[in-house]
Structure formats: structure tokens, C-alpha cells
Amino acid sequence: MTRKKIFICDDDKGISEMLEMIFEFIDAETIVETNSINAYERLRQYKPDVLIVDLWMPVISGDLLIQKIRKDRELSNIFILCISASRDGKTIALDAGADMFLPKPFDMDGILSIVEDALKIESAN
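== Response regulator ==
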């Protein structure tokens, strides 16, 4: 059985690194991209099962990336969790095609639970 893949796209390296540490508790490969310009091509390369994407990033915003993914037949089935501190973030993210929205700051157990449910795997603990 191949390992599930989680792709994190957030320009805040602190958040990306923290999420990467959280996902060490489940049997999944984690790919991190902090530059939204590179995200789409890396998504096509890795074809992850879950994408966690920040809404507000320089150059290519999360909602534009989500829209592009949803139009791509090879990527359209990725579970997308959008994270943001934006007041209107939930509406923007879901309108773009995200499966779920989680406001920042978020609870570590909460995001881990969402991703585990999306991957349908259990944690190692």
C-alpha cells in the first residue's frame, strides 16, 4: 500500500514547519511548498491526497490555486483544506472549490483530525 501524501502550501514557514511536525504522527508523506508560484507544478508532480493551502499568499493566492486545481482532471479529486485568518476566508475558500475551511489560529488536534478523516487513516498513537 502506498503512503498517503499531504501537500502544505503556506508562505509562512513557521506554520508550514509546524504542520509538517504535526503530520509526523500519521503514516503519510508530507510535501511543503512556501512559494505559491511553484505550488501547481509540484502538485502535478506529487499528486497528493490532501492539500492544505493558505488563502492569502503573495503572487498566486490560495483561492486562485484552488480554482486551477479543480479545473485539472488529474488533480480535481484532491481533498482541499483552506486555512486563513481572513474574516471572509470561509466564503472565498468554499466558493473557489475547497472542501473545508479552517480559520487561523487553529487547534492542532483539530487539523490533525480533519486530515486523518480525509486520508481515512489512523494515527500511530
